[in-house]
């Protein structure tokens, strides 16, 4: 898989807001001191469930 690094702020201010950091092999969701790390496959499954409105 190609290199993919992307950071998305989940609020407009960019301050103490959670972010989604998409890396090649994992996705980090949260903010400093409170981070959830998912494997890319886990993140894709979560994303699919959200799109299907299962969550």
Task: Give a summary of the structure in a few sentences.
With 55 residues, the protein is α+β, with helices and mostly antiparallel strands. Helices cover 22% and strands 36% of the residues.
Topology summary:
Blueprint lengths: L5 E4 L9 E4 L3 E6 L2 E6 H12 L4
Antiparallel strand pairs: 1-2, 2-3, 3-4
Structure description:
With 55 residues, the protein is of the alpha+beta class. The protein has one domain (6-51). 22% of the residues lie in helices and 36% in strands. The chain has one helix at 40-51; strands at 6-9, 19-22, 26-31, 34-39. The chain has a 4-stranded antiparallel β-sheet. The chain is globular. The N and C termini lie far apart (28 Å).
On the 0 to 100 scale, the average pLDDT is: 88
N-to-C order of helices and strands: EEEEH
Low-confidence runs of at least 5 consecutive residues: none
Number of helices: 1
Pairing-aware structural class of the strands and helices?
alpha+beta
Number of domains: 1
The residue fraction in helices comes out at: 10-25%
- Spatial gap, N to C terminus: 28 Å
Largest sheet, spatial ordering of strands? 1-2-3-4
Radius of gyration: 12 Å
Number of strands: 4
Strand proportion, as a percent range, falls in 35-45%
- Overall 3D geometry? globular
Major beta sheet summary? 4 strands, antiparallel
Task: Supply database-style keywords.
55 residues, alpha+beta, 22% helix, 4 strands, single chain, four-stranded antiparallel β-sheet
